[in-house]
Amino acid sequence: MGGYNYELSHDTLLAPVLKAKKKRVAEEEAQKRAAELAAEEARIAREKMRRTGGVSGRW
Fold first, then answer.
1. Alpha carbon separation from 26 to 30, 33, 35, 59 (Å, rounded)
2. What is the pLDDT along the chain (59 residues), one digit of tens a residue?
3. Whole-angstrom Cα distance, residue 55 to residue 52?
């Protein structure tokens, strides 16, 4: 993935860095899930439009 690597050996630095990484990874995963959900909802809407010919069925 690229990026930078740093060697952390001081105990006071390690914990905050690991905490920040855990938070960042969780946020990235949440964003990925949200994007996947939006894509699935769009796919379902397209499929529904295809099946109904663009008619919503509501009057």
1. 6, 11, 14, 44
2. 678 777 766 777 888 889 999 999 999 999 999 999 999 999 999 999 999 887 665 55
3. 5
